[in-house]
Write a structure and sequence with these properties.
mainly alpha, rod-shaped
Length: 150
């Protein structure tokens, strides 16, 4: 269809809904994996804490407390990674919620210029979005374009 649009000199709008859906398809696996790890660590911590008062040996108690600290540290790290992915998802969504092209481009360029510091799944998505970005924000230029084709 693109050659036809070019020949007619008609702008093409890509569906924001489907672009965000593509992002979610890529993010859902790492988000679910982190969520499972957090849940697993939380369960292990609770199990160990429930056993702790029943233990008689101080050495065993110390080992279990050390294990709890390690599990809590891992859990905090996974929660941080999960929050980071959720934040990037929201930042990308906010690009398309802008009413002004200039603001949308600034938000996008901020992410794109920081590509090497982004989580790999987000960096890949932003790299691909760069190629089609102008077609995704045509609805800001032309009043007759909807943001979605659904």
């Amino acid at each position: 269809m693109q050659p036809l649009f070019d020949q007619l000199n008609f702008p093409h709008q890509l569906c924001i809904f489907h672009i965000m859906q593509n992002l979610m398809d890529k993010l859902i696996k790492p988000i679910n994996k982190l969520s499972r790890k957090i849940k697993s660590r939380t369960k292990k911590i609770k199990e160990i804490e429930d056993k702790l008062p029943l233990l008689k040996s101080n050495n065993v108690k110390k080992k279990n407390k050390k294990k709890i600290r390690k599990l809590k540290k891992e859990k905090r790290q996974y929660e941080k990674e999960l929050k980071e992915l959720e934040d990037y998802k929201e930042r990308i969504s906010n690009i398309f919620k802008q009413k002004d092209i200039k603001k949308a481009k600034i938000r996008f360029n901020t992410l794109y210029n920081n590509l090497k510091n982004l989580p790999p799944v987000v960096a890949t998505f932003i790299g691909r979005l760069k190629k089609i970005f102008d077609k995704t924000i045509n609805y800001m230029k032309y009043d007759f374009f909807p943001t979605t084709n659904n």
